[in-house]
Amino acid sequence: MNIKLNIKKSYFNEVYLPYLNNTERFTVFYGGAGSGKSVFVVQKLILKLLKYPNRTLLVIRKVSASLRDSIYQEFVTHITKFGLADHCKIMGSSLTIYLPNQSKIIFKGIDDPEKLKSISGIDDIMIEEATEITLDDFTQLNLRLRSKAENQQITLCFNPVSKTNWCYKHWFANGTPEDTCIVHTTWYDNKFLPQSYIDSLEQMKVTNPVYYKIYALGEFATLSKLVYNNWKVEDFNWKEVHRRGNTRALFGLDFGYINDPTAFICTLVDTTNKKLYVFDEHYEKGLLNDEIAKIITNKGYSKEIITADSAEQKSIEEIRKSGIRRIKPARKGKDSVLNGIQYINQYELIVHPSCTNLKEELENYCWDRDKNTNEYINKPVDSYNHLLDALRYAVEELSRGWKLKSISKSSFGL
Ligand SMILES: Nc1ncnc2c1ncn2[C@@H]1O[C@H](COP(=O)(O)OP(=O)(O)OP(=O)(O)O)[C@@H](O)[C@H]1O
Ligand SMILES: [Mg+2]
């Protein structure tokens, strides 16, 4: 039987055409809202399935209940547009679509792992809204893609919601992984959008800059509650600020080595006006203790009081022996993280433009959520906290007599 397909170039957004037949195992479509990512992947995968008979595509979202009204519907829409609907078996009850060449599309939620395990013979996978699933889920899915079919591929779509999300860490943090194609798009690339939608995205520039960054520009930003909102980047001359009086110079050091950087921070604290000026930082992986001492000396801070992570007494001792006489361990103790956060939150942080790593941490250090209820808990996510831990150590000197008022969630605005 011959079927007349109705496929025109005008059905596609031009920007995606080079990716119709890419052969990398992983293809990542990320960017702004309404940029045409999902529709293009649907179009591309329908065409791929038509090319290979007896092939099975698994379409994944985190929650199965959200499949029917979203991505399943897109497949039905574009199968219809291609003039294929009368030749396919479209089974809404089981969320399965059979194409005329015996290839099929099945839709599953990751919330149903037992069902997932029972599916075999998967040849391609599409992960819609990939930031909703976990790295563990992704790893499991990748392991399932092991049939003998040629050109097996996993395609992911998402908006860049947070640098703490696995999608950032896995696909971007350490450069593009092997065998991966990454495509970034925004509303600008989608000719099918109504002007009203574009206007509403652009309006967010004023009403909600974080949403604007993620959904209009398609850049990573965090939607989670940030630990610190009391900061701005502003140019200042630290010597001038120091000369005005009223400030104390305090320095903090957090140790890292292979996976985490060593983070050194330099501040001037004005306790009267509650201003905390951060004027210098050092942020580097793989540093040995004598190298840390050398960096501090070269910066001219070897005579200053430096408060360091108390978990590394031996490192502190070595650095002291290298000439940094006034280095001392921070007092850690129970609730010291929350205590320090609450103390720093009384201040306005003024970050010198040269402190780019601190800015990155401030933009991403956020509160964690309960895995089951998704409610915020009074514990920060353990990343983007190296310079910020060093900052807590630095001001510990001042916060010593200062007691945490309350460690209840509400005292952190959660
Ligand atoms: N090729 C196309 N043909 C017709 N309409 C399209 C096409 N591509 C996109 N659209 C229209 O643009 C809308 C947005 O596209 P799509 O859902 O693919 O964007 P997205 O990048 O996946 O957005 P989000 O980030 O919100 O998931 C679609 O709902 C559809 O109305
Ligand atoms: Mg989409």
Please explain how this structure is put together:
By secondary structure, the protein is of the alpha/beta class. The protein has two domains: 11-216, Rossmann fold (3-Layer(aba) Sandwich), CATH 3.40.50; 231-405, Nucleotidyltransferase, domain 5, CATH 3.30.420.280. Helices cover 31% and strands 21% of the residues. It is built from 13 helices and 17 strands. It has helices at 37-51, 68-81, 113-118, 135-144, 166-171, 195-207, 209-216, 238-243, 289-298, 313-321, 336-344, 356-364, 386-399, and strands at 26-31, 56-61, 89-91, 96-98, 104-109, 124-127, 153-158, 180-185, 231-233, 247-254, 262-270, 275-284, 306-308, 327-329, 348-351, 367-369, 376-380. The strands form three sheets. It has an eight-stranded mixed beta sheet with strand order 3-4-5-2-6-7-1-8. A seven-stranded mixed beta sheet has the order 9-15-12-11-10-13-14, with helices on both faces. Helix 1 packs across helix 2, helix 6 (195-207) runs antiparallel to helix 7 (209-216) and helix 11 (336-344) crosses helix 13 (386-399). The longest helix is centred in the first third of the chain and has 15 residues, at 37-51. The chain is elongated and about 85 Å long. The termini are far apart. The model has no long low-confidence stretch (mean pLDDT 92). Residues 37-38, 157 line the site of magnesium ion.
